[in-house]
Q: What sequence folds into this?
């Protein structure tokens, strides 16, 4: 297969608007007579609201409307099973920052003053601030009135294959406990939304990753049919998962626009962005693995406990994800997973790059390193010995198609010289691998619609592609333009795009779970090929030639320019439109909970980290990172590299410094200065290798690029620290004080380790036993539930 | 009460020189340069990330030196030459830095890009061929969450090479 456009490192289609400051982000918009909104938020982590008095606020000149939870009582939430949020809460607040009231005023300062003038009487309740506290009876009352016992939100227990037998067969059984601290997305752009209400129709421009989910939530809470609501994605200043839920401020500006009849805008402050959160769950993990003497895994038992914060968000899915993908990298013949998510009085956690899988990946990679050391085996060899094979099904029914783990490992091993590294004091190298979804195989809410649709229109030589996907900076618009251009023999610049607008674009489930290139890409190919057939047929008829003789490329269809061909086709067929859609295959396993984990294809990564660690100060200096990523096929290698480098950066931040922590119910550092993230000075050189395995189902063989390469970085850092200093830090972030403490313990003859001492006792339900599937993959056979 | 505070805002007439254009504005004295650029002059290319001087997103040039517009009051920069991202290109011709950023994918979401372009412009004016470490040092105050910085470093080096 040869390509004219695909595979070339082309400039993004939005590059010029972005480098000239002309991209219009939500907060750049100001419509005539716009009112500004501020939101009053709870100062208490846990309290009942006794009364709210807004009368003084309403009297302030310039205040146009004040609303409370009584104005927006209908609950919503991203998952159908956890509709537990209100845009404004009038009964009970569950974290510091929970929205209570909102003011629309002619100036933002007036709105802020009006918020200050609202008096709220609280009955303060004892907050629950940790996993351990959530597992026992609360002193006052539970945070949510569902789930349980106590403040447990969700419990799950699944078993695949003969786990007990697997452990019996093992020559070594090892248990370890790990902790992955929570952290947040920290997009450079604060969430922002602006709404109008004209003639019974709401229009919202928002910084969101998923216009469709916002659309659904607005319809529910505002009690308007979806055809009276239009949601448009403004230019997007970064999401990383943090703008995937529908948010309170989006609903609030719509309601205020309906009440005032004027445009209403709300941009969160940086502090509020930390409260909106939905970031990485803090997860405590216990893992037990049986291996043979030569390092083959015989059974794996994994337990997770997620600190979910105050609301459901994506939490049920996150919980399943902490147990789903362990088997996608290593061939595990028998697997047991027990997961638990708890409610705490903190901002809700949700999906952040890698959604629920970086934490177990961290635990599993380090755990296997320890096993290798205990067996006296080389950790890389041990891992490699257990790699999954392409075209197989895992014990938990996940379908693995293409898999470039061996090649990824080979590339980073060779480039880094890992196996021949010279030992010098304080220097270490670490290795880890990972895998991630190319889009979730099942939708968040059950429906039979396609997950993505693309429509094309050709008119007077111009091509317009309509797609609901949101370019959040990852370059999905550019990928769409490249695919359509490839199929129609044009250049990406020839393609006009209309994206992320619920009035004008067909359904797409948005920019999350690394789904856009795979799903919208496949839909775009289908739409473009249909269009191509019409163009070829019109030209062939005109020339009296067979359609098979007509070549497409270089802006020409046969002997005609694209513009001439489009006129011929329009004369023959009428208005030239075509459409394509993509629905993932029904490949989920036959058990409850099987909807989380299946993906039409998995990406694979391997990573080596080289660092120096100071045994006196615990300071870590990362010298270089090598990363190889199996992207199936790089539709645009420049964008793939950008996604891989950005993932490595974010993984390094999580490994070394980023943490969302709380003290006495308060977020400890809701600011960009105190919430540490890597700067130019902290970022080492990254050498990226793109591995192409050409997936049978991906568009041109492409798989995901934007999340998977984050995952191996934290465990590779920890394993390099062990290589450097001989101590394990079994939790992230790996801060200097943890290293120093581990070294102190080592000097005292205690276990040379810093990390959680134990895993709590959790009332997991009895295990659902699932028969494993036949191992060899029959792609034709559906395993539908 | 807050009502009185709001009523008694002190305002001042200031002449600002932004991208070579002079504008006279009546402004509340406490309004930051960032707010004035975005809200009173419609120069929304300058972004805000924290409004506390922590992220570098709102960087503009004042007499050629990078400054955080969220920490400046217009009264401090009256009569001085302010450059924002809108002032980088000459007509439709991109500045070499903009060109290099576009070509190499140094802007992903693009939100930090205006500030980084301006910090880089100032660096290249004082140091035409900076080393990679000198670029890192000069840009250490500008955060980016998308790129991992790699493509930005490459783009600045490419632009420096073309400008030299």
A:
């Amino acid at each position: 297969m040869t390509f004219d456009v695909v595979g070339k490192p082309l400039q993004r289609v939005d590059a010029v608007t972005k480098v000239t400051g002309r991209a219009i982000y939500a907060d750049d918009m100001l419509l005539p007579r716009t009112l500004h909104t501020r939101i009053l938020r709870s100062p208490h982590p846990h309290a009942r609201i006794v009364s709210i008095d807004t009368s003084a606020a309403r009297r302030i000149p310039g205040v146009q409307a004040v609303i409370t939870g009584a104005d927006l009582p209908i609950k919503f939430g991203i998952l159908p099973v956890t509709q537990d949020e209100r845009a404004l809460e009038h009964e009970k607040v569950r974290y510091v920052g929970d929205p209570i009231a909102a003011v629309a005023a002619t100036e933002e300062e007036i709105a802020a003053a009006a918020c200050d003038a609202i008096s709220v009487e609280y009955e303060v309740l004892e907050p629950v601030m940790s996993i351990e506290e959530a597992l026992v009876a609360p002193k006052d009352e539970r945070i949510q009135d569902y789930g349980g016992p106590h403040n447990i939100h969700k419990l799950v227990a699944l078993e695949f294959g003969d786990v007990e037998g697997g452990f019996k067969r093992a020559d070594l059984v090892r248990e370890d406990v790990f902790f992955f601290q929570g952290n947040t997305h920290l997009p450079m752009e604060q969430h922002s939304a602006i709404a109008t209400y004209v003639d019974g129709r709401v229009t919202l421009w928002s910084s969101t990753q998923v216009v469709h989910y916002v659309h659904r939530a607005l319809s529910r809470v505002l009690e308007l049919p979806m055809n009276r609501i239009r949601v448009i994605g403004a230019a997007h200043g970064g999401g990383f998962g943090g703008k995937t839920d529908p948010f309170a401020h989006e609903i609030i500006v719509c309601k205020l626009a309906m009440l005032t009849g004027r445009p209403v805008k709300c941009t969160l402050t940086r502090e509020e962005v930390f409260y909106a959160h939905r970031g990485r769950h803090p997860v405590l993990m216990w893992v037990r693995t049986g291996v043979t003497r030569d390092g083959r895994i015989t059974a794996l038992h994994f337990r997770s406990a997620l600190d979910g914060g105050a609301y459901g968000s994506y939490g049920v899915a996150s919980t399943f994800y902490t147990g789903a993908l362990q088997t996608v990298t290593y061939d595990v013949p028998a697997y047991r997973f027990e997961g638990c998510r708890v409610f705490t009085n903190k901002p809700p956690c949700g999906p952040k790059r890698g959604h629920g899988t970086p934490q177990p990946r961290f635990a599993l990679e380090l755990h296997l390193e320890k096993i290798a050391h205990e067996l006296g085996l080389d950790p890389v060899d041990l891992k490699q010995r257990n790699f999954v094979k392409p075209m197989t099904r895992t014990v938990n029914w996940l379908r693995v198609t293409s898999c470039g783990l061996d090649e990824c490992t080979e590339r980073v091993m060779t480039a880094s010289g890992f196996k021949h590294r010279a030992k010098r004091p304080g220097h270490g190298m670490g290795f880890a691998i990972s895998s991630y979804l190319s889009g979730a195989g099942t939708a968040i809410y059950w429906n039979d619609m396609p997950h993505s649709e693309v429509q094309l229109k050709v008119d007077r030589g111009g091509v317009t592609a309509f797609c609901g996907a949101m370019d959040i900076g990852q370059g999905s618009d550019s990928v769409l333009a490249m695919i359509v251009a490839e199929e129609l023999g044009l250049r990406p610049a020839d393609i006009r795009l209309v994206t992320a607008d619920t009035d004008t674009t067909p359904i797409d489930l948005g920019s999350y779970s690394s789904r856009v290139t795979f799903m919208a890409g496949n839909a775009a190919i289908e739409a473009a090929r249909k269009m191509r057939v019409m163009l070829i047929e019109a030209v062939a008829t005109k020339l009296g030639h067979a359609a098979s003789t007509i070549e497409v490329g270089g802006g020409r269809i046969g002997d005609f320019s694209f513009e001439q061909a489009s006129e011929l086709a329009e004369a023959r067929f009428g208005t030239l439109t075509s459409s394509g859609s993509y629905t993932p295959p029904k490949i989920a396993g036959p058990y409850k909970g099987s909807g989380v984990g299946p993906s039409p294809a998995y990406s694979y990564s391997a990573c080596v980290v080289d660092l120096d660690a100071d045994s006196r100060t615990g300071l870590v200096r990362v010298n270089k990172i090598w990363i190889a990523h199996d992207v199936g096929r790089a539709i645009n290698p420049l964008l793939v590299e950008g996604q891989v480098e950005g993932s490595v950066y974010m993984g390094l931040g999580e490994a070394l410094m980023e943490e969302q922590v709380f003290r006495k119910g308060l977020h400890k550092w809701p600011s960009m200065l105190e919430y540490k993230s890597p700067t130019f000075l902290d970022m080492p050189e990254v050498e990226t290798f793109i591995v192409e395995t050409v997936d049978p189902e991906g568009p041109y063989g492409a798989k995901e690029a934007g999340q998977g390469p984050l995952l191996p970085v934290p465990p590779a850092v920890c394993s390099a620290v062990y290589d450097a200093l001989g101590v394990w830090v079994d939790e992230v972030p790996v801060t200097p004080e943890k290293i120093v403490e581990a070294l102190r313990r080592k000097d005292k003859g205690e276990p040379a380790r810093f990390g959680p001492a134990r895993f709590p006792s959790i009332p997991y339900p009895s295990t659902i036993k699932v028969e494993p599937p036949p191992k060899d993959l029959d792609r034709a056979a559906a395993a539908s539930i | 009460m807050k009502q009185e505070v709001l009523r008694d805002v002190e305002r001042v007439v200031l002449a600002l020189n932004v991208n070579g254009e002079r504008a006279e504005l009546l402004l509340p004295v406490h309004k930051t340069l960032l707010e004035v650029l975005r809200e009173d002059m419609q120069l929304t290319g300058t972004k805000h990330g924290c409004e506390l001087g922590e992220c570098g997103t709102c960087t503009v040039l004042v007499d050629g030196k990078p400054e955080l517009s969220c920490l400046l009051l217009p009264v401090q920069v009256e009569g001085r030459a302010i450059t924002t991202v809108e002032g980088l290109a000459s007509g439709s011709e991109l500045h070499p830095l903009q060109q290099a950023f576009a070509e190499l994918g140094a802007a992903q979401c693009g939100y930090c890009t205006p500030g980084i372009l301006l910090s880089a412009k100032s660096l290249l004016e004082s140091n035409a061929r900076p080393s990679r470490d000198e670029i890192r040092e000069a840009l250490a105050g500008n955060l980016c969450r998308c790129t991992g910085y790699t493509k930005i470093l490459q783009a600045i080096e490419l632009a420096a090479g073309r400008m030299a």
